[in-house]
Amino acid sequence: MAKQGRGTPVRIAGAKANESERRPMARTNIIKHVESETQAYVGRDIKRIEDRKFIEGRARYVDDLRYPRMVYAAFLRSPWAHARIVNIETHAAAKQAGVVSVLTGRSVEGRILQKPLAIAPHGVRNPRREPLAVEKVRYVGQPVVMLVGEEPGLARDALDAVSVEYEPLEVVSDPFAAVHGGVVLYPECEGNVAFEFNWVAGNLESAFAKADRIIRCRFINQRLAPMPLEPRGCVALYEAGYLTFWTSTQVPNRIRLMLAATLGLPDHRIRVIAPDVGGGFGSKLGLYDDEMMIGYTSLALGRPVKWIEGRSESLVASTHGRGQVYDAELAVADDGTFLGLRVSGIADLGAQLEAVTAGPPLFCGQMICGAYRIPAVSFEVKAVFTNKSPTGPYRGAGQPEAAFITERLADLAAAELRLDPVQVRKKNFLRPEEFPVTVPSGVTYDSGRYALALDRALEVVGYEEGRRAQRRAREEGRYLGIGISTFVEKAGFGPSRMMAFQGYEHATVRIERSGKATILTGASPHGQGSETTFAQVAADVLGITPEDVTVLHGDSSLIPMGVGTFGSRGASVGGSAVLRACEVVREKAKRLAAYLLEVADEDVLFKKGQFQVMGMVERAVTMEEVARYAYRGANLPAGVEPGLEAHCVFEPPDFTTSFGAYIAVVEVFPETGEVQLKRFIAVDDIGNVINPMLVDGQLQGGIAQGIAQALWEELVYDETGQLLTGSLVEYGIPRAKDLPSFEFERIVTPTPHNPLGAKGVGEAGCVGAPPAIVNAVVDALGPFNVKHIDMPLCREKIWAAIESGRRDSRSG
Question: What's residue 5's pLDDT?
Fold first, then answer.
């Protein structure tokens, strides 16, 4: 799906450059201080080491686990969005053959403690609740009864014998109505507000008073389903006073802490294992109520308990993404200069707070300035409860929402001022000499060359010729559009006052007696290719091959410290910890080599996997020889312990900020509202690149998901709180045939915040793609006086916008 290096301007209609026109991507020496004649692996395309087991069908997911005496759980979930529970009758279900246990909210009330929040903004209200509903249900899909059976089918079938009497209550599914209406979800939350987040920087009154134009628009980021290929699932086994908990998660060490906090077990008696995980996209960042119940039930029964989420169940029971609406005003001068920005809106949290539900609205506010110099800015959001499934991070986590606002405003300003959208962006970009720069939201951007990335994207697409082709097409009755999006992605989560977890990552590197390496990492990859990336870093430092490196992760008994994989932090934070640990263990090996060679430490060089005496190449020992000596334990230098192992905790001083310039080319068919995506060009600056092939894979997935938000995906609720898109029949996700081959280019501006100089890339596509697509469609519909269309851009909306524009033109 990816094509790299398109350099020559091409026809906007979609003709592609020849292979001979490919421009090679610049290579950068990342690990500059490695004492090696060649940098063999970092910066190269290397196929994923971890993929063989998946290709051969040997992967082991939660649902593959089988243990003696295992029982299986199923949940009866609320069919009502808001109702009082009058009575629950479980006797008939309990008598069914093979039923082991039936649990209700009353039967576990007070026995499971309140879940801690991983992200808790100032003043947040987190009403107490039980993992199974007790008095009320507040969203469709909330767990009400848990049934445990000897077989999965028995448990599910026996749910039909449970009878629950509900008294329906008034529902609030509109977040604006939640603030102003009469439905109260929790008495302690006035106006259903969970928290508010706001800030002001600069003189807004002066900025708006000086403005020649004020651009206003409402921007909706609709609810989305993260839709990992593998839904959630877990197995709990409690025996001999210890709980082992296998779960499909992005953060095994955090799950361990949350189990300890909720079940009353000390954390040293809990082991959490993340086996192979089939994607997460932010939906597997916390401990859900149903997962807590699996751990609790294993403690109560003393038997292994298993639960696997179904796809339709996932659509109501796992957290949703986005769900934010903002009204924005941009003050601009006639020459396109941005003077001030006001943004205020509502974040729909759903019915309750999960561990990281509060994050996306906060991150939206932090990144609202985008790539631009805006002297005066204000941001405010009310995060409210509604009778819908809870929200949480979804690839990008607030940053797609922010980028959509700023990038649509940039295009709206250009249209209003009759300026080219490229001209408006370049006029307001932060300049390279300004970095590091702290933007009005308080976030510091580390490095960037924004105009350079945009210029490269314009060159690849053939922008000037593209505009000429667009004009010719319109004369023929065809409607082509070119959409631009320039964005900043805050990545590599570092220290944060709003988060309960730190921004570090842990790594242990051990050289085995064979001279091969084992890495233990607190990062918990689930499709990112981190095993390959970390192996490349280690191979260059230790003078071995990536195949000589084994990377272990996802087991809290092996790796007691670790934060996890999310927020585009795997390579920049986890990889930096690996690098530091490799350097430490290499230095110990160097000292041992000097002792064996009977020279001073400073007289030893490490080249091509050997420790050599400076100026005497024939006097050398290999890493394997040093390792065998280190593990003998006898006759070691004074003060040196046996073995070759090093531990490192790396915590970056701040976030990294990646940048991208995306251009989408579309054709819109007015008669049907159909959008045909012709080309998609992505120029990303993610600092130094460890494995270009893996970066392209991350970009492909992120861009595909971003395009899907713009064109197809939406979780739709009716006024009674019922989810109307509760299966893959109604919820539209992209297929390979829906997408063109993406064209990738990169520029490299390293970050000073980690020794690799690497920035995050995992969420870039989701941040930059939606505004590029919407800008392209609106650009195509310029002749119809269409100014804005809300996502997703389904055919009905586009057709209606065209008809409305025609009517406005006639009336004008």
Answer: 39
Q: What CATH number does the domain located at 49-57+504-650 have?
A: 3.30.365.10
Q: Which pTM was predicted?
A: 0.93
- Domain assignments of the chain as residue spans, ordered by start: 1-29+444-491+655-812, 49-57+504-650, 78-169, 187-224+319-430, 227-318
Task: Say how many CA atoms lie within 13 Å of 296 toward its Cβ.
Answer: 28
The CATH architecture assigned to 1-29+444-491+655-812 reads 2-Layer Sandwich (3.30)
For residue 499, the model assigns a pLDDT of 59
Hey, how many other C-beta atoms are within 10 angstroms of the C-beta on 598? 9
- pLDDT score recorded for residue 498: 57
pLDDT score, position 61: 97
Is CATH 3.30.465.10 correct for 227-318? no
CA distance 156 to 154: 6
Q: How many CB atoms lie within 10 A of CB 230?
A: 21
Residues in the chain predicted with pLDDT less than 70, given as ranges, are 1-39, 494-502, 809, 811-812
Please report which helix (H) or strand (E) contains residue 538, including its range: helix 530-542
CA distances from 549 to 42, 272, 517, 627, 690 (A): 14, 24, 5, 15, 16
Are the C-beta atoms of residues 245 and 295 closer than 8 Å to each other? yes
SS3 473: helix
- Summarised one tens digit per residue, pLDDT across range 189-244 is 999 999 999 999 999 999 999 999 999 999 999 999 999 999 999 999 999 999 99
Quote the Cα angle for 636-639-640, to 5°. Answer: 50
Distance in angstroms (rounded) separating the CA atoms of residues 76 and 488: 43
In 532-583 the beta strands, taken as DSSP E runs, fall at 549-553
Side-chain half-sphere of 155: how many Cα atoms within 13 Å? 23
Amino acid at 68: P
What is 187-224+319-430's CATH number?
3.30.365.10
Q: At what angle do helices 399-417 and 764-780 cross, to 10 degrees?
A: 30
Domain 78-169 fold is Aldehyde Oxidoreductase; domain 3 (3.90.1170)
CB 253 within 8 A of CB 287: no
The 10 Å Cβ neighbour count of residue 406 is: 28
Q: State residue 805's pLDDT score.
A: 83
